[in-house]
Amino acid sequence: MVKQESESANRPDNTAFTQQRLPAWQPILSAGIVIPGFVLIGLAFIGIGVALLVTSRSIQVLELDYTGDSNGSPCSSCSQSDIANCKCSLNFTLTTLFQGPVFFYYGLSNYFQNYRRYGASKDDNQLYGDLSSFTSPSSSCSPYNYDSSKKPIVPCGSIANSMFNDTFTLTRTVSGTTNNVTLDGKGIAWWTDYNIKYRNPSVTPLKNAFNGTVKPINWAKPAYELDASDRSNNGFVNQDFLVWMRRAALPNFRKLYRRIDASGDYQKGLPAGNYTIDITYNYPVRAFNGAKKIVFSNVSWMGGSNEFLGIAYLVIGSLCVVMSVVMLIVYAKFKFPDEE
Amino acid sequence: MQFFKICIRSWVKFGLFFSQQIHDCCMFGGEDRRVGSRTIYVGHRPCPANEVFIPPKFCDNRIVSSKYTVWNFLPKNLFEQFRRIANFYFLIIFLVQVIVDTPTSPVTSGLPLFFVITVTAIKQGYEDWLRHKADNEVNKYRVTVLEDGRRIQKESEKIKVGDVLEVEEDETFPCDLILLQSSRDDGTCFVTTASLDGESNHKTHYTVPDTERDVESLNATIECEQPQPDLYKFVGRMHIYKNNEEPSLRSLGPENLLLKGATLKNTQSICGVAVYTGMETKMALNYQGKSQKRSVVEKSINAFLLVYLCILVSKALVCTTLKYVWQSKPGQDEPWYNEKTLKEKETNLYLNMFTDFLSFMVLFNFIIPVSMYVTVEMQKFLGSFFISWDKDFFDSEIEEGALVNTSDLNEELGQVEYVFTDKTGTLTQNNMEFIECCIDGHQYKYRDASSEVDGFCVTDGPMNTEREELFLRALCLCHTVQVKESTEQVVPPLQEQRGFIASSPDEIALVQGAMRYGFTFLGLESKTMKILNRTNDVEMYELLHVLNFDPVRRRMSVIVRSISGETLLFCKGADSSIFPRVKQEEVEKIRMHVERNATDGYRTLCVAYKHLTAEEYDQVDSGLREARLALQDREEKLMAVYNQVETGMNLIGATAVEDRLQEEAAETMEALQGAGIKVWVLTGDKMETAKSTCYACRLFKRNTELLELTVRTLESPGKRREDRLHDLLLEYHKKTVGTLDYKSLNWSSQDYGFIVDGATLSMVLNSSSENNLHDYKDLFLQICQNCTSVLCCRMAPLQKAQIVKMVKNSKGSPITLSIGDGANDVSMILEAHVGIGIKGKEGRQAVRNSDYAIPKLKHLKKLLLGHGHLYYVRIAHLVQYFFYKNLCFILPQFLYQFFCGCSQQPLYDAAYLTMYNICFTSMPILAYSLFEQHISIEMLLENATLYRQIGKNAMLRWGPFLYWTLLGVFHGLVFFFGVWFLFSNPALQDNGQAFGNWSYGTIVFTILVFTVTLKLALDTRHWTWINHFVIWGSLAFYVFFSFFWGGVIWPFLRQQRLYFVFANMLSSVSAWLVIIVLILLSLLPEILYVVLRKPRGPYARQVVL
């Protein structure tokens, strides 16, 4: 039926590819390359490590715990009562200038923002300003999607509901007079979160968009009234809200609260002197053995202070150098056969 | 009388039906003896003997090799795919994700699974489509059917059993036919079965006598056996009904049967009746698949998989336990900021635990990579092309290269410990040359200088011309050689150019040898053999019977009648089968010659003759006819007649034919031995011949001490053979195994060669059952394993397989390879781990049943030492790397559970989880596993000892596995805790802003992708442009993808988790610094290892001496 073909076509192609003879670079990590390479890398790393360590050391950090577990601490009374807007204040003294720009963080510990169910409990469509999600929040927000009277909660979910609601004011006492230190709340959240990822519905006034919805159970004010002083800082693009919504990676975390406004006396940072932080204490943490703190810090090109990086670079840099020395000894003793 | 016949017919039909059932059951059972017979009405004409004509039912001639139809493709294919344990596992994971509230969406495991299933389905669908196409081509082919005196064109699939078909020259037969009529005068036709068994010679088939003239009006039935797969067996008989005459009976044999797939040659056209059609043809029955062979690598993968499954389950268990321990602490279970839903509160605690366990399983399931199976399969499939593409395997003589029948065993080629090789056609060329002969004890040797017979006598005696001529006539007559019909005009062909065709090259050598001594075989014409004798006269002999060669008798005979009316039987065969059948006084003279020739490595045959008186001949003739007509046990009956005839013969002489060694046979064997491979020669040949071949191949060397365990050494006066066997075995065992301890102290190696023959071997193998005290089999095996080479001669095909099986199942289960070229090697080729066929002269059966086929023995060296070594290294690295990269992928996710309250929070985004194995890290390892040459092929071929380095599955043992696992753990720890320390202060940007959990995951993931890719780059010793492209390409793709994925608000996502996370990460100097330092830290041990390990590559020569 099928006539036999001529078989001369059977000869395999004689190309570099089919014959596994593609030109190839065959790197040999010989001691001659590796030892100088290691020395170079090691020295570079040590250099970077030193720079990092110096930078990190130069960053000033001031941490103040205000949880109030112990009786002596200023906020102990507030921590034990359930009174809303309980006031307490912390005093601290700076002996030297706190180099600016100074960042004001609040820190929480043993707080699991990275809990899976907690993290999933939000509705990104709602937060993107989608009005249909206002009336029917995603079921992922449960049990914070509808209140007891079956009204939809906006913004829904655990994250929004548990938004950090302690507020702070910083005052400086100079020769008996108390001046408010201006705190700048702009640009503390990611630019893309503020401008793109989160959006208010395009309804004016904003309040009307929230008709038929209720505020999160734990919130004192609805979303459109979060910042009375700045109308553009309301709804879902409220900077504090955005900062809170970006979940922390680990159970002990800090979040940016404000920046010290670099104007007037504070152009160079916080000058030496006595300061008072007035705290409106609302956020309960003792139920889960948490702690709250205030952190003042300035930043460098590498961000906040972190000695780990500098130490890591130093250790690995020196490791490289040591290894190259060891290799040199090994090499000198048993001359490698690949060094002709 | 009539009634009785009808009864018989219906009874036969019932039997037929019944046997059909049995046949259907046995379709896959292999060589079951099919009982019963079928009756075929030629041309569907009712025969006069049977008034009630019931057309019997047979299957149609449709060939179905395809598996699926359009309708059943989807369910059937899916079912078959999910029967694979890996696919099923991923399906379960997917279903768990769909049903249970799990941390990752079902897409993450559904997408890869869908991808794998789809790709496989497309591949299988395409293959099936090709099969459909091929089937259609065959089924729709137009054939000519003779129906009621008319020629009708029909589609091949519509042929029914009983149709009379006409087939023209160069067409292949559409089904199995009984030859009724041929256009040739002598009622023969020529056929080539090249596509069936590769034998390209023309075979003669004969019409059934008395049917030639009147096919149109032929009234006959055929009774024949039910279809069976043996191509060379057919038994049947034909009843021919002529007008009012008593029906005549003709026997049918394989010479009357034209097989589907064979091609008609040298004959204008034939007519035949279809007896077997469609799936019942012998060709179709022979297409039953072989059993699947699995490689050691696959077994290792399964073992590692089990380990990883345990790791997976224990991780999930640990996390589940920790979660509930953690939750039991006050305030942790349900802090005010994270209340449970009503549903969660109401669910049973244990059910919750179970779903949590499942969730953790899902979270960590990526540790068992679905993509590994795909990559391994792709690597094997694509990698095997390099074998068939290799031009070094191309043989210009047969114009063919290597053939890869299965790609599953590529890496096994790098693991071979035992090579079992056939001798004839494998070690030797199977290209016979007549060297000398011996007539009545006188040696005759052909000399080039003069073409005259030169008889220098060992015993001084007169030249006996009469005996000489008898001997040469015997050579000219006793064979089944055909003369090749030259296509040119028939000029009296020159002697030397005369072409002969035969199934055995020995016969050609003998006929050609006779030609040189002056007796030329001119051909066979209508049962008359013509010989041109020395005086240029043509002698004619009537060919009465051919008593065919078979391996049991080891001889063949012809019965001829000369012009003068003498009836002669000529017989030739192996000495052992001839000597007992001739007058004993003649034997001694010739035995000496035969043995000497055998020692020189020649193949010897003895020639004998016998005068048959008229009565004797009549007796033989009727005996043969009777036996040939028998439907049952025809073979046995024929054999009995043969044995009866071939007795009391006169020995004339012996021939010696040289079978030259294959090119580079000795070099190849030496290289294999250098590679630590033990070579065993398994042959059906005589011990002396085989031994000399072994010496010539340098398997036995001059200093090799030979241990013989043969029938000859067992013969010892005054002792039973069993006792002698026992003594010898113990003695040899002491010698070989005993010296081994001594050897370890002092390396004065004494090579041992072991020789055993078939008869003794069966004694050894069968003894253990009777004699519990001495397990001979064990002793025997130990002796064999301590010898450098073993020669097993006088082996039946099945014994070859037995030997292979014995070694295969011995301690340590070594990897065996069988190589052979003939049908007698098929059993051992199928039995061994790797079967290699040589595309030799003894047909294609070995090639068809092999895993790989190569044109010559010398190619084995490159196949094993070059390709095998590389394939093994590639796939072993591939497997280890896959497990490693998934371990360090999932370990940080596991560690993260300790810092997120064991809440199954994924560390990485779903896109990263899904894409990691599919896109980011799959291509570099695939390219590596296709192109890596850690040592160049030339170097591998030059230094056979390099092969030993990877022996015994060296790269996939638990040691290396542990190394890779620890490396994975180390990397996973570095990735996770490095970033963890960094995140002690999450304010990592110079504007004071903090990073969240997705940034954490993305930093870890970035380090991960870079580290595993660079780790592979460090391992790559052979950087082709493809490697460069793929390695740097995947890294670039990762960066590009991350930007892209994070740069768009994806409407189909519920949560825009990664929105600008990657870009923000890159804006932080600290993130850059931590990525760099952690990658370097992870790779530091690896770099050290690369620098300090034994240098390889171009410098290997200095190390490996």
UniProtKB/TrEMBL annotation, chain A:
It comes from the Eukaryota. Coiled coil: none annotated. It holds the Pfam family CDC50. One of its GO terms (biological process) is phospholipid translocation. It is found in: Membrane. GO terms for cellular component: endoplasmic reticulum; Golgi apparatus; plasma membrane. Keywords: Membrane, Transmembrane, Transmembrane helix. InterPro entries: CDC50/LEM3_fam. The chain crosses the membrane at residues 28-54, 311-332. Belongs to the CDC50/LEM3 family. This is Cell cycle control protein. The gene is TMEM30B.
UniProtKB/TrEMBL annotation, chain B:
Residues 56-109 form the P-type ATPase N-terminal domain. Residues 139-282 form the P-type ATPase A domain. Residues 847-1094 form the P-type ATPase C-terminal domain. It catalyses: a 1,2-diacyl-sn-glycero-3-phosphoethanolamine(out) + ATP + H2O = a 1,2-diacyl-sn-glycero-3-phosphoethanolamine(in) + ADP + phosphate + H(+); ATP + H2O + phospholipidSide 1 = ADP + phosphate + phospholipidSide 2; a 1,2-diacyl-sn-glycero-3-phospho-L-serine(out) + ATP + H2O = a 1,2-diacyl-sn-glycero-3-phospho-L-serine(in) + ADP + phosphate + H(+). The active site is at residue 422. It holds the Pfam family Cation_ATPase. Its cofactor is Mg(2+). Its EC number is 7.6.2.1. GO terms for cellular component: early endosome; endoplasmic reticulum membrane; plasma membrane; recycling endosome. It is a multi-pass membrane protein. Gene3D superfamilies: Calcium-transporting ATPase, cytoplasmic domain N, Calcium-transporting ATPase, cytoplasmic transduction domain A, HAD superfamily/HAD-like. It comes from the Eukaryota. Keywords: ATP-binding, Cell membrane, Endoplasmic reticulum, Endosome, Lipid transport, Magnesium, Membrane, Metal-binding, Nucleotide-binding, Phosphoprotein, Translocase, Transmembrane, Transmembrane helix, Transport. It is found in: Cell membrane; Early endosome; Endoplasmic reticulum membrane; Membrane. One of its GO terms (biological process) is phospholipid translocation. Its main location: membrane. InterPro entries: ATPase_P-typ_cyto_dom_N, ATPase_P-typ_P_site, ATPase_P-typ_TM_dom_sf, ATPase_P-typ_transduc_dom_A_sf, ATPase_P-type_domA, HAD-like_sf, HAD_sf, P-type_ATPase_IV. ATP binds at residues 422-424, 507, 549, 572, 603, 683-685, 794, 800, 824-825. Coiled coil: none annotated. Mg(2+) binds at residues 422, 424, 821, 825. One of its GO terms (molecular function) is ATPase-coupled intramembrane lipid transporter activity. Belongs to the cation transport ATPase (P-type) (TC 3.A.3) family. Type IV subfamily. This is Phospholipid-transporting ATPase. It comes from Astatotilapia calliptera (Eastern happy). The gene is ATP11C.
